[in-house]
Amino acid sequence: MILVTGATGYLGSHMVVELLNRGYKVYGIDNFSNSSHSIISRIKRIATHPENFLFRELDLADKSSVGLWLMHNSYNISTIVHFAGFKSVPDSVAEPILYYRNNLDCTMNVCTIAQCLGIKNIIFSSSSTVYSDVNQVPFNEETATIGGSSPYGWTKIMSEQILRDYCNSTGNNCLHLRYFNPVGSHESGLLGDTNDNGLMVNILRAANGESILSVFGDDYDTKDGTCIRDYIHVDDLIEAHIASINFMDKNRDCGVQIFNIGTGNGYTVLDMINAFFNSVGKEVPYNLDPRREGDPPILIANNRKAVDILGWSPKKTLEEMCISAQHYYEKGVKYDSNDSST
Ligand code: UD1
Q: With a threshold of 0.85, does the pTM exceed it?
């Protein structure tokens, strides 16, 4: 059985469905702080083996709730996939203590769960935002992480360290997957990103007439002055987790390892606006606005290590990312009002 924290979030819900489809038993926990209860019924509707999904509403940052849950839990869990945590760069700049408290407590409680239940393997959702030196783009896993560019980035660096120290002391295994920018949605159109601050979510709103996109900063040292990111389809990102589980099954004492999970291709914000128009056929109205605090100018992966060691490679194009994001906007976002079972 696999334990998925943050199981109803954007990435966690995709992970749960993929695991169920592959025949795994899955135990999900979440406190719905960044999702909704309807995700449970969506997961059960989409997955081929919904009967293998157990779920408990639980605040992972709350030590006493976790302790109570541990007292009553006797499942045989082999791996924890740890997605839970706040993930918005601008929110973390506005409320740093909230971010440090929540994200670090979640990580420490994952260690407690692993210890109490004798779980050997952990896969941690880290982030490319840990890299800070633009002179070293594209980043490999050895690139210095000194100085996360936002409190959110620091929570990822610190969580990696907590997990590293924990695993070194116990002999546990942990893979830190440093995600670049996940976008796109599940092929059903029922699971997708809802984060108000994310670029793709705001492109969708603008393209579909809800708002005008704010492009945050046009004076960076890039070809058109806007920030560069390495966007990766959520399906490819989840495949990297499946490859990680397989890798840990084969390498029972793999220790702590870091993998960049990105495509290796960088696009500016204006590139993304154009790509959306070219693939979906909708104009994205936008204004050029000041920089957003905490944004690193360029994040692009060197993904060689994941390709070589995990045997994984990203498959989906930017066009597919845009089309699938629009699919979720048309179907998933408004789905609950038509979904009588939720
Ligand atoms: C995202 C993830 C973060 C992950 C990181 C990895 C979210 C909320 N954040 O952060 O968890 O660790 O990727 O690289 O999913 N932008 C605009 N206008 C907008 C929104 C964004 O111009 O309305 C710009 C931003 O300034 C940035 C780029 O688009 O340059 C991407 O922003 P965003 O989608 O928020 O992702 P990250 O901040 O990179």
A: yes
